[in-house]
Specification:
Metallo-beta-lactamase, Chain A; five-stranded mixed beta sheet; 16 strands; 27% helix
Length: 342
């Protein structure tokens, strides 16, 4: 576990996904921010017991958005702790099984290794109807966390929110950006600090992503924790985020670059057409080519292999002899003595 700021602790799960334990100003109370991938509940419960005391539970679980790596263990933890799950109303269609998020874009420019694996991600949606509650939008106060406010940061998910504590300028940025190169698996595994774009294949509205980064950079945070990457604090936090805002790397091409998807309180209302994805065709051509090479190699082997001359035959060297029914204690041998060669 890593400390982001006073009363804010980051837990890294599988060196890829982060969740946060945020203590309230009220003694003994805390909130869990995000829940990691499905199956992360035991690691989160064990960390909470270690950080606070055995059997502890939060006042609530707050989801920055409903993607699988943030909401994956929400039901298991809500049922274990018997606490509500809070999320922005625009995330509810995806958290109550009424809609799925826009498809990932594996063709996006600069998507890196994440774009490749995005082809195999299942449609993202959860059924949390009986445990999830809408985050109040009448103000920006974070329930159960006095001194914190939430900010809308759409583009990656329609109801994605970041959390900010003005007193010490602590920012939990969700997937509005990342604190490691999200498009490089080695960079994520090594946890090299680098403020960068997060989840490019899953960003459905690139202008909104840019606006969200600019909105958060204006806060001049002094400590940052995001959904992916290590903690960054001190002058590097504000400087790195401002550099990303000033030099935002808008992709040159991709499904949602020129024309974003449109989402509303019911889910997805419009999807731009998917551009051609060359990789499946290339993979098929590689498979066909590999099969042809294997077939040609097999044909050449059998065509050129040595053949015995006409009339010659390999003599089989006998192994044995093996004697059957030669047991002197058997008074009723079924057959006479034989020698058999294999």
């Amino acid at each position: 576990m890593n400390q982001v700021a006073a009363g804010v602790t980051q837990l890294q799960i599988q060196r890829f996904v982060n969740v946060y334990f945020v203590e309230s100003a009220n003694p003994g109370e805390w909130v869990l921010v995000d829940t990691g991938l499905p199956g992360s509940e035991q690691a989160i419960i064990a960390a909470a017991n270690q950080l606070f005391y055995p059997g502890t539970h939060p006042t609530a679980i707050l989801l920055t958005h409903g993607h699988m790596d943030h909401a994956g263990s929400a039901r298991a933890l809500a049922e274990h702790w018997q606490v509500p799950v809070l999320a922005h109303p625009l995330e509810l269609p995806f958290l109550t099984g009424r809609a799925v998020y826009p498809p990932a874009d594996p063709t996006v420019d600069g998507g890196g290794s994440l774009a490749f694996v995005a082809r195999f991600f299942p449609p993202q949606s959860f059924q949390l109807t009986d445990v999830v509650q809408p985050l109040a939008t009448t103000d920006n106060d974070v329930p159960y966390l006095p001194g914190w406010r939430w900010l809308p940061v759409p583009g990656h998910a329609p109801g994605q929110v970041a959390l900010f504590r003005e007193a010490d300028r602590t920012l939990l940025g969700a997937d509005a950006f990342a604190t490691a190169n999200h498009e490089s698996v080695p960079a994520l595994l090594l946890q090299r600090p680098q403020i960068s774009v997060a989840g490019a294949p899953f960003n459905y509205n690139w202008p909104q992503v840019q606006e969200s980064v600019q909105r958060l950079a204006a806060l001049q945070p002094q400590a940052i924790g995001c959904g992916h990457g290590p903690v960054i604090s001190g002058p590097a936090a504000a400087a790195g985020l401002q550099a990303l805002a000033d030099n935002f790397p808008m992709p040159a091409h991709g499904r949602y670059v020129a024309e974003p998807a449109r989402l509303d309180e019911a889910g997805v209302s419009y999807l731009p057409p998917a551009p051609p994805d060359a990789l499946p065709r290339q993979a098929a051509l590689v498979a066909v080519g590999a099969g042809a090479l294997l077939a040609a190699g097999a044909l050449a082997y059998f065509w050129n292999r040595p053949r015995p001359s006409h009339g010659s035959a390999r003599k089989r060297r006998p192994r044995g002899p093996y004697r059957f029914n030669e047991d002197p204690e058997n008074p009723f041998p079924a057959y006479p003595y034989k020698e058999v060669y294999f």
